[in-house]
Amino acid sequence: MTEYISDPPTPPPNNSTRSIDVLFNPIKGIHYTDEIRNRSGKAMGFRPIGGGLDGRIRISPEEVRSLLKQAKIYIDFGPHPGMDRLPREAALAGCVVVTNTEGAAFYEKDVPLPAKYKVKKFDVEIIHKLLTDILKHFEERTQDLKEYREWIHGQGTTIKVPP
Q1: What's the pTM value of the predicted model, to 2 decimals?
Q2: For residue 140, how many other CB atoms are within 10 A of its CB?
Q3: How far is CA 13 from the centre of its chain?
Q4: CA distances from 157 to 33, 92, 109 (A)
């Protein structure tokens, strides 16, 4: 299962305007995200994609794109039934994407992120250190996803879109 992103977000804003440290999907892998949030304490700011106190109220695609442009990191530790849209949109918005290796994320062909951003075994300390490193060296780490972003842009020639 996949969906071609025919309307990629506009070029990411200046990285100095990114006010959200870590953005996450509150519907997927929330028990993992909660562990990371508890470990990180106030050292990192976490924000769910969505409205309401718990982020579970659906928001518009424009609001999602706005949040992605404000974030430095997008994490997704839920199941990956296919090439999920949110990690790809997050990468195009300039976020560093960190996932697990469940479902399609296990396969390089489906989610070709650099290996250091695909967590094989959940370990809150290792993930906390990874997120801390990304935030400390954001300008460098976001460049690690250059090939992933190029791959996303190239999907228009490989995914068949029905008329």
Answers
A1: 0.86
A2: 11
A3: 16
A4: 35, 17, 15
